[in-house]
Amino acid sequence: MTSPPADAPTPPPPTCEDLYDEARARPKSLRLLPSIIRDAVRLVRAAAPRELAISIVLKLISGAGLAVVFLMGKNLMATLLTDGQLPRTVDVLPKILAVAAVISGLGLIAAAGREVREILSETTARYARERIIDVAAAVELQAYETPSFHDRLARAATGQHRPIQLVDGLIGTLGAVAGVAGIVVALLAIQPWLVPVVAAASVPLIAGVLKAGQALFGFHLRMTAATRARNYLFELLTGKQSATEVRAFGLTDHLRTRHSDLYDAHMVELRRTARERFRLAVAGNLALAISLAGSIALLLHLALTGRIALADAATAGAALLVLAERIMMTVMSVGDIYESGLFVEDFTSFLAFGPAAIADRASGPAPRDFGRLVVDDVTFTYPAATAPALRNVSLEVGAGEVIALVGENGSGKTTLAKLLCRLYLPQSGQIRWDEADTATVDPDELRQNIAVIFQDFLHYALTARENIGFGSVVHVDDLEAVRAAARRSGAEPAISALPEGYRTILSPEFSGGRDLSIGQWQRVALARAFIRDAPLVILDEPTAALDPRAEHDLFASIRTLYAGRTVLLISHRYSTVRNADRIYVLRDGQIAEHGCHEELMARGGHYAELFTLQAAAYSDLDPTTD
Ligand SMILES: Nc1ncnc2c1ncn2[C@@H]1O[C@H](COP(=O)(O)OP(=O)(O)OP(=O)(O)O)[C@@H](O)[C@H]1O
């Protein structure tokens, strides 16, 4: 692939939106079925090739086994009834034993088939789940900002058992089709005109099951967003994180009613869909029944008027009835396959958005060292927003500098930090790490050079060691490195006081787990940034929950703590950023001004206004001021 010219605007990253629309718009005709079946078989084969092969072989053996039992039984009867004499035990016993052995062998095969099927199903579900994780990990963070991605993710997560259902249905259908074929051959020999009649009568039945499959799939498609909303409310009502606030504000009844209303709407729609599916089934079956009754009446008429032999009419009638039953079964199986196929198509088209699909995105190697980070005229708008969060932002961060980013709420500080980490790509402008445009380098490699702690850092319900070690996953088992990071961030005393120290799970949801105070959590998060050996450190509000002494200590020693590294600091505490080499002031997504503290104060602009405002609040509280 050719790389775009250096000055060309960065193309918008592909999101799941494109794929979503394409998948939805695609006609869900029966013609798609072979490719859907191929995809499903491929997926199951990739997940569990051995189990799939064994499962098919066992199914074939069972099918053939039934025929063998039938033939052996026929042979046994012949032996028993030979010349009207009682057979000798020695002649008959081996045959009885052989029939018994084959029957019990078939029983064993059926039992083995069930177990293999269970393993096949679970292995396929696991494989499908892992592919979903691949997609979730590969898509740009931007995809998470779109409801359609979450809809598709939710459907993929619930549809992971569909490929195996489809393959199951396929194996069953092959058997049913073989049964139909046998009777069709017999009918062709007796009354050939009956075959096209029955085939024509099956058309409404087939159309019905296809429409029924589409109706069910449509129902799931329509309800995905509402189902996610309902599941979210369920999480709120049952989750640990929400439990405190839901109780404190007495929200349980209100949320419960909303959950229940959404469920009511879901059930109304489900009943409507079920009625539609039932109507389609009635119409299809009625058409088949009418044509059957007509054919049998005609057979009877032909027999009574002497145009066909009575025996032929009776045989054809019986074959017709069996055929009708088989056709119904077959059509049902085909309907199930089609229905599963619609979900499989939805599922596999989602998987297509995984690592393979984004492999050809520009992704050169990330620079190893850090000299300079340049933000050049960057504009960025969130997918869900209409106005840009950042407009024509330009700034520069040099190696070894401590740079501060300040501004009022919503001015774009966190957004800029996320763009620097290449979590989002700008719609226009460039972010250059030394000479490399970060849009064109491998994002994972680039992020290895950055230690970032966001305001909403994660509280992992895992051990204290992991909570720190995740900052540099290669050090997760290195207790000494973890301890050293904890000492630097001041988290060490709180962790050492835990019942199992660094082995304690930081969540009371798990046995032996304990929680930390918010300030202690913040120190743990800071330790995560310390353990990561990255040249650029981005700290987004790192001291919001720290006590004044801890905050003072951190900022007083920031140059020593991060000696040799470059620090980008986002803070609302103006006193803490005054020692930065350069301060950038963001306002409504734009850089309003920049310079060192003294320069900005002398200028008397936005920074000076906010700094003075904050300082005044402190001096008002100061009992020594008059
Ligand atoms: N995921 C999102 N989708 C749409 N708009 C967003 C999203 N995240 C943030 N915004 C909007 O982008 C703008 C910048 O937000 P950002 O979080 O960068 O501000 P901030 O300066 O870090 O604010 P704070 O000081 O409150 O942390 C805001 O107007 C915000 O409402």
From TrEMBL:
Main location: membrane
SUPFAM superfamilies: ABC transporter transmembrane region, P-loop containing nucleoside triphosphate hydrolases
GO CC annotation: plasma membrane
Membrane topology: Multi-pass membrane protein
Keywords of the record: ATP-binding, Cell inner membrane, Cell membrane, Membrane, Nucleotide-binding, Transmembrane, Transmembrane helix, Transport
Record-linked Pfam families: ABC_tran
Domain ABC transporter: 373-613
InterPro entries associated with the record: AAA+_ATPase, ABC1_TM_dom, ABC1_TM_sf, ABC_transporter-like_ATP-bd, P-loop_NTPase, Type_1_exporter
GO MF, one example: ABC-type oligopeptide transporter activity
Listed transmembrane segments: 52-72, 92-112, 170-191, 197-221, 280-302
Record-annotated ABC transmembrane type-1 domain positions: 53-339
Key word Transport present: yes
PROSITE patterns tied to this protein: ABC_TM1F, ABC_TRANSPORTER_2
Protein localization: Cell inner membrane
Family statement drawn from the similarity comment of this UniProt entry: Belongs to the ABC transporter superfamily. Siderophore-Fe(3+) uptake transporter (SIUT) (TC 3.A.1.21) family.
The name this protein goes by in its record: ATP-binding cassette subfamily B protein
Organism per entry: Kribbella caucasensis
Lineage: Bacteria, Bacillati, Actinomycetota, Actinomycetes, Propionibacteriales
